[in-house]
Amino acid sequence: MPPTSKLFLPPTSLSGCLMAGIFRDTRGADLSAADRLNHFPASPIVAITLVQHGTLHILPPETSWRTASEAPSLPRSSVLAPQDVPVTSWSEGSVVALTVGVYPDAWRRLGGDDRYQAMLPIFDEALGNFDAESDAADGWDRFCTTLVSGWRKARPQGWEPVTRVADWSKALATRAALSGGGRSLRSIERRIMRFSGHTRRNLAFYSAFERLHECATNAAGRSLAEIAIEVGYSDQSHMGRAVRRATGFSPARLNRAIETEEPFWCYRLLGERF
Predict the structure, then answer these.
(1) 21, 105, 194, 254: which could form a disulfide with 8 (CB 3.0–4.6 Å)?
(2) Would you say residue 61 lies in a domain?
(3) With a threshold of 0.90, does the pTM exceed it?
(4) What pLDDT score does 158 carry?
């Protein structure tokens, strides 16, 4: 039996707060120790994780699955700050876990800070209402329902709903331009940094990588050079450097892995957004 992997998108009422939910259930799946690795790209988004069954280890860079059990394991619920390098986890056996992407500015509006060291009470409550033992989709609905009322109270008037990193980046820039006294580019960039914890340049990098993921998912036989130009990179080498920065792999190696290797299931799942 193959593992169960599901992508959950937030309702419109939470689209400026949550990016998506990723659910993974490997119970009953015949996976080798190597196939129990999980590869995730670098991300500007806060990740909160509930491990409902089993154990997940977060691996230091370039750690082999052979020594993965020596790496620190996640508690039942945890917060991971935005990461500018790819992340790899590993499970000793079967695992049931939900990871939810939260926009950093929404995290702060809900009472969090830029240290991302403690789970916020509102997310603790929402995660407590997620139960995959019956139906993961129903659990996601309960999670979102719990969160909606708190988000409505925390969300300022005029907060734009967004569905992608590129949309979020544009909304941040607009909000930064319309708030505060200074209207210079430097003033706007400082406010973007204060709102999100990211520079404008960093957000542009992730927006381009998101667009690249979309184009690669729907490539239909196009060459890497053609994809690079379509996304807006100066050439294929420029794209290659961006892909290595975000994933740790070359574009060709990453494409092969997404198509054929179990540890890259998250890339396949995120491709469903496009």
Answers:
(1) 21
(2) yes
(3) yes
(4) 79
User: How far is the C-alpha of 89 from the C-alpha of 38, rounded, in Å?
Assistant: 5
In the predicted structure, residue 181 carries a pLDDT above the cut 80 = no
Backbone phi and psi for residue 191, each to the nearest 5 degrees, phi listed first: -70, -40
Question: Is 169 part of a structural domain of the chain?
Answer: no
Task: Identify the domain containing residue 19 by its residue range.
Answer: 4-154
Tokens 């009322």 correspond to what residue?
Answer: 149
Domain with residue 55: its CATH number is: 2.60.120.10
All residues at 6 or more sequence positions from 53 whose CB lies less than 8 Å from its CB, including other chains: 27, 94, 95, 96, 97, 132
Average pLDDT over residues 179-196: 86
Comparing C-alpha atoms, which of 273, 247, 197, 274 is closest to residue 9? 273
Helix axis angle for 200-217 and 224-231, nearest 10°, is 140
The domain total for the chain is 1
pLDDT value for 235: 94
pLDDT at 217: 87
Q: Is 159 within 8 Å of 42 (Cβ atoms)? A: no
Kindly report, residue by residue over 239-263, the tens digit of the pLDDT. Answer: 999 999 999 999 999 999 999 999 9
> How many helices and strands (H and E) does the chain possess?
10, 8
- 266 inside domain: no
Residue 1 pLDDT: 84
Strand ranges for the chain from DSSP E: 4-8, 18-25, 37-40, 46-53, 56-59, 77-80, 87-91, 96-102
Please give the distance of CA 210 from its chain centroid, rounded to a whole number: 11
**What tokens appear for 182 in the block?**
């200074």
Sheet holding 96-102, edge to edge: 4-8, 18-25, 96-102, 46-53, 77-80
pLDDT at 219 over 80: no
Q: Name residue 78's beta-bridge partners.
A: 49
